[in-house]
Write a structure and sequence with these properties.
Layout: H1 2-33, H2 35-44, E1 59-60, E2 66-78, H3 88-94, H4 101-108, E3 118-124, H5 126-134, E4 142-152, H6 159-162, E5 165-167, H7 170-175, E6 183-185
Amino acid sequence: MTQLSSVRKSVLAGIILGLFLIYGLKLFSMQIVFNRKFEDKSTDNSIKAIEQMPLRGVFYDRNLKLLVQNVPSYTVRITPSEYDTLTNPMLEALLQLPKDTISHIMQKHKKYGKYQPVKIKKGASFEEIGWLEENSERFPGVDYIIEIKRGYTNTFSAAHVLGYLKETNEGDLKKIAFILSETIWE
């Protein structure tokens, strides 16, 4: 009886050890041997975060005259991992940017990663955005976001009281851990 149970334990231990060996070899194969294949699949399967800026409040004076409102602003962005640099001249002509502006901006933001969208032009016109939408298949990796800016009436100026938004710069990055082009409230 004890001899039979020790044989069973040996067989069970052998099966478990064999399974671990098979899984270990498969893991080694996936991580080391076929690394490139699975890295490419993983890159294609990445998730793209979509930013959406919250609306801020609208301010009226005591006579219900509008003082501060939200104004939409279009910003064109490029995701470096998806973008084809051969389209730079056509995109620069469309956005009325000087030659090699896109290359310069992309080089400046290279350290932040190839999946982090880079802002190319703020305040793009509705016509430029419309043309980009119609020709989106020509420009892979190019998209736009709608950012909300504060619109102050001509008769009222109180940004110091009501607050304002600004984009982070190199100085802000040194003070606090921000991502370049992130919007902060002051």
